[in-house]
């Protein structure tokens, strides 16, 4: 059994707001294995971005606070690490790609300045070495004539190019883990396909583990090997990709999968939906958080929150899960 | 079937100013010679990548942007020739639903005020009948009457979009432009709003121009689909034909780029290289030729005309020299 690269255990994160204390993450546990791509899926407010920020030690505090739980990178505890210690990890061992390539790059510096900074700091390179390495990375992510484009400013590039620069920058120090928060959401489908292909290719070559945070189940199906489905701050289901898409066990994953419009031969008159909306984290229903929107809910679901239970590499937090793929139930 | 909207050779060019005296130095052809029709009670889907001119086209049809040339006929009336006053009267028949439900509702107005305003502007009914109409509208979009005196910030994105839809319906329009109306919503809410739009269409026989970058959404909701690239329509077909038998190389590439929510169909993709060219300096001839896998010398010379390849009586138009 290989050791996980990163393990998150019983993580609880709260934010204090004017209306009260919001528990954005409520007991989240998962592992990331070396070299794998894990999808973190869910709708807005489910806590997927907060989880990835917590891994990077970027939860703004105040108002945010990691109440309990641990995040271990190769056995080393990250929760409670000092800011100066975290700086050695961020960008070097764990790096991140954000959703908005327009705002993640600094508009007043050239790509060269921004990329060499990282390399000089973490790898102790000279400016010249760093520049060569940066050009190499740009070529690797498929930027045409990198020697020329490296001296451009972010505004001179298109959205897809900027996202490639971000990927190149994030991978330039050979990090062990890459957190990609909605990396292709702001891009067009054709550009999205290019960027995703590039990411998967680089990951194969460099052996980096990737956490792909997204709401797009299509992207997850095409690029991840495993996925964690989150709902209102908790994990609803964790599973390898194949069984998740063939036989989702949690009614929420099931509803989510059914409600995506797909390209079909025969058109449906009506799309299946999940009734209602995501609950306000300040006023969660008693029992299971999904209870008000669930077609399977009964008295037990109103009583107590169901625990996440494992069965053959598929975990589900539900009292009435759908039968697992391949079972005869 | 009777035609409700007819768009003929519509053009919208934006002047580009530059230099010391802000002279006009060029034209950005956001919409260039676009023609199509929408029958009564049908939905026409418009797809394309960002910057291809689909939103400009939607707005030009409503004369929210003044068209540079061409003709728009709605129910027989030529919209382009109306003066300001006549246009206001005709605005009743055509409405728009915007993308961002957070920006398109006034934060200072209650739901009631927002929904009453169009009725007041057009002086329809008295106070009592207006209120009755507002309550009816809320019921149609699936909201309860107790929301009337609330402000937009009290609602979620999906509910705001429902209010936006109710507002578009207040004057019983014949035609609605839905500009990325579900793009900002979460998947589970998106399907609810899509179902609502489909139901309205069936029950109220409204024609829609449904603009979206999401091909699966467009296929689900539309009868006919137009594919746009750099200001031009390159393919128009019924939604089933377009997906079953896409003709234009751009349509094929777009379709193959969609990530399928099914891990077993790792599609053999034709991944397009490069980005959409700048609309300021579009390539000569066919605008797609710089990224087209099937480009031929003839493609550089002139833009191919839309050609109708009728098949079993169903119209399927494509602008490409391959056909």
Describe the structure.
The complex is a heterodimer of chains A (329) and B (323). Chain A has 12 helices and 12 strands. Chain A has 329 residues and is α/β, with parallel strands linked by helices. In chain A, the strands form 2 sheets. Chain A has an 8-stranded mixed β-sheet, with helices on both faces. Chain A has a 4-stranded antiparallel β-sheet with strand order 2-1-4-5, covered by helices on one side. In chain A, a hairpin with a 2-residue loop joins strand 9 (226-231) and strand 10. Chain A starts with 5 loop residues before the first strand and ends in a 13-residue tail after the last strand. The mean pLDDT of chain A is 87. Chain B contains 9 helices and 12 strands. In chain B, the strands form 2 sheets. Chain B has an 8-stranded mixed β-sheet, with helices on both faces. In chain B, helix 4 packs across helix 5 and helix 5 (157-169) runs parallel beside helix 6 (187-204). Chains A and B meet through helix 8, helix 9, helix 10 and helix 11 of A and helix 5, helix 6, helix 7, helix 8 and helix 9 of B.
Main interface by residue count = A-B, 47 and 47 residues
Would you count the extended β strands of chain A for me? 12
Strand content of chain A: 15-25%
Largest sheet of chain B: 8 strands, mixed
What's the arrangement of secondary structure elements?
The complex is a heterodimer of chains A (329) and B (323).
Chain A: E1 6-17, E2 20-32, E3 37-41, H1 48-55, E4 64-73, E5 76-77, H2 83-89, E6 94-97, H3 101-104, H4 111-123, H5 127-140, H6 146-149, H7 159-171, E7 177-181, H8 189-206, E8 209-214, H9 217-223, E9 226-231, E10 234-240, H10 241-246, H11 251-259, H12 299-303, E11 309-311, E12 314-316
Parallel strand pairs in A: 3-8, 3-9, 6-7, 7-8
Antiparallel strand pairs in A: 1-2, 1-4, 4-5, 9-10, 10-12, 11-12
Helix pairs in contact in A: 4-5, 5-7, 7-8
Chain B: E1 3-18, E2 23-39, E3 43-47, H1 54-61, E4 69-74, E5 77-78, H2 84-91, E6 94-97, H3 111-121, H4 127-140, H5 157-169, E7 175-179, H6 187-204, E8 207-211, H7 215-221, E9 224-229, E10 232-238, H8 239-244, H9 249-257, E11 307-308, E12 316-318
Parallel strand pairs in B: 3-8, 3-9, 6-7, 7-8
Antiparallel strand pairs in B: 1-2, 1-4, 4-5, 9-10, 10-12, 11-12
Helix pairs in contact in B: 4-5, 5-6
């Amino acid at each position: 059994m290989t050791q996980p690269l990163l393990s998150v255990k019983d993580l609880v994160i709260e934010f204090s707001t004017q209306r009260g204390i919001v528990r954005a993450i409520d007991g989240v546990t998962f592992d990331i294995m070396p070299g794998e791509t894990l999808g973190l899926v869910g709708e807005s407010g489910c806590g997927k971005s907060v989880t990835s920020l917590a891994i990077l030690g970027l939860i703004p505090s105040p108002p945010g606070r990691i109440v309990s739980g641990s995040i271990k990178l190769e056995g080393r505890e990250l929760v409670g690490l000092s800011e100066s210690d975290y700086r050695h990890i961020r960008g070097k061992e764990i790096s991140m790609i954000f959703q908005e390539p327009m705002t993640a790059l600094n508009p007043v510096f050239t790509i060269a300045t921004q990329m060499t900074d990282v390399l000089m700091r973490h790898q102790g390179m000279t400016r010249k070495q760093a520049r060569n390495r940066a050009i190499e990375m740009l070529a690797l992510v498929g930027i045409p004539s990198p020697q020329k484009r490296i001296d451009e400013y972010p505004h001179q590039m298109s959205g897809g190019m900027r996202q490639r620069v971000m990927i190149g920058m994030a991978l330039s120090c050979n990090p062990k883990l890459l957190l990609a928060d909605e990396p292709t959401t702001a891009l067009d489908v054709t550009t999205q396909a290019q960027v995703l292909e590039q990411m998967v290719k680089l990951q194969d070559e460099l052996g980096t583990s990737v956490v792909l945070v997204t709401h797009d189940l299509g992207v997850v199906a095409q690029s991840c090997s495993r996925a964690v489905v989150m709902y209102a701050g908790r994990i609803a289901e964790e599973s390898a990709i194949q069984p998740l898409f063939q036989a989702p066990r949690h009614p929420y994953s099931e509803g989510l999968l059914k409600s995506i419009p797909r390209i079909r031969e025969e058109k449906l008159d009506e799309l299946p939906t999940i009734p209602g909306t995501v609950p306000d984290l300040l006023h969660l229903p008693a029992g299971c958080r999904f209870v008000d929107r669930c077609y399977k809910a009964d008295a037990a679901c109103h009583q107590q929150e169901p625990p996440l239970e494992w069965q053959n590499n598929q975990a589900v937090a539900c009292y009435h899960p759908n039968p697992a793929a391949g079972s005869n139930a | 079937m009777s035609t409700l909207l007819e768009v003929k050779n519509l053009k919208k060019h934006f002047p580009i100013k530059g230099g010391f005296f802000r002279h006009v130095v060029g034209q950005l052809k956001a919409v260039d010679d676009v023609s199509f029709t929408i029958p009564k009670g049908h939905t026409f889907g418009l797809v394309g990548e960002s910057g291809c001119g689909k939103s400009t086209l939607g707005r030009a049809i409503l004369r929210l942007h003044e068209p540079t040339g061409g003709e728009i006929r709605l129910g027989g009336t030529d919209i382009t020739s109306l003066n300001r006053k006549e246009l206001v009267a005709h605005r009743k028949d055509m409405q728009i639903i915007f993308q961002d439900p957070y920006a398109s509702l006034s934060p200072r107005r209650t739901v009631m005020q927002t929904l009453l305003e169009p009725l007041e502007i057009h002086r329809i009914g008295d106070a009592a009948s207006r209120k009755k109409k507002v309550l009816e509208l809320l019921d149609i979009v699936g909201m309860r009457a107790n929301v009337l005196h609330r402000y937009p910030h009290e609602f979620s994105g999906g509910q705001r979009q429902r209010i936006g839809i109710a507002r578009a319906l207040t004057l019983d329009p014949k035609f609605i432009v839905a500009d990325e109306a579900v793009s900002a919503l979460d998947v589970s809410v998106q399907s609810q709003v899509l179902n609502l739009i489909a139901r309205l269409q069936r029950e109220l026989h409204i024609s829609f121009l449904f603009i979206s970058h999401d091909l699966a959404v467009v296929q689900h909701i539309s009868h006919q689909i137009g594919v746009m690239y750099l200001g031009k329509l390159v393919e128009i077909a019924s939604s089933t034909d377009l997906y079953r038998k896409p003709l234009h190389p751009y349509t094929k590439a777009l379709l193959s780029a969609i990530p399928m929510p099914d891990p077993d169909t790792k599609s053999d993709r034709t991944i397009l290289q490069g980005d959409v060219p700048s609309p300021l300096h579009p390539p000569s001839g066919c605008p797609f030729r710089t990224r087209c896998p099937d480009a031929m010398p003839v493609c550089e010379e002139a833009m191919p005309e839309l050609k109708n390849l009728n098949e079993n009586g169903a119209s399927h138009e494509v602008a490409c020299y391959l056909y």
